[in-house]
Amino acid sequence: MDELREILSALWLTNEIHWDISLYVLFVFNLILLLQQPDGQPLATGLVIVVLVAIVIDKVKAFGYMFSASPYYTREQCHEQIFIGTYLIRAVIFAAPLSVAGMTKNPSSRPTGIIAGVLGGVYMFVRWYLEQRDISTTALFCEMTFAGLALCHAALMLSGARDRFLLGRIHRRAPFLVAVELPADGVEVELS
Predict the structure, then answer these.
(1) pLDDT digit string (tens) for 103-122?
(2) pTM of this structure
(3) d(CA 35, CA 80)
(4) Which end of the chain is more exposed for a tag (fewer CB within 10 A), N or C?
(5) How is residue 20 annotated by DSSP?
(6) How many CA atoms lie within 13 A of 147 on its CB side?
């Protein structure tokens, strides 16, 4: 319950008022962009909603609460400086409004989308330059156990899928990968 109170209190102004105001401005521009979208454009509307959720995640530092407390990093430091997901949601805040501006059927919403995208890009690059550019690649997940778990999961997925991929050779012994089983009448076999 205390974590929920911390998250809700992070929605208001904090001691980093310059980042708070920039996120509020981004939220307002993207909310205006959402309201300008005509009916019948679910992709554009969905992208703007994803941007609004990403702004809220960045504002409350939600990625810091995904991991258990670490002796090496605080939750705020994990979210702001280390976790790669933070950079990815900031990239969404940058790219999605520009995509919506390019695909919308309402020409009056294009300037709002362009402004929201440019402001999102400035926000992303400034935060990256000031906070994330000097982080080593070994610390991208705040805890090495999470990275180890992700690697183990990927290895299990690949080993489970290995019987679906058949490694073979075609003419002139060029390697190739067959992703599906071929019917017997559609395959030519050349014996040497």
Answers:
(1) 988 889 999 999 999 999 99
(2) 0.68
(3) 30
(4) C
(5) H
(6) 12
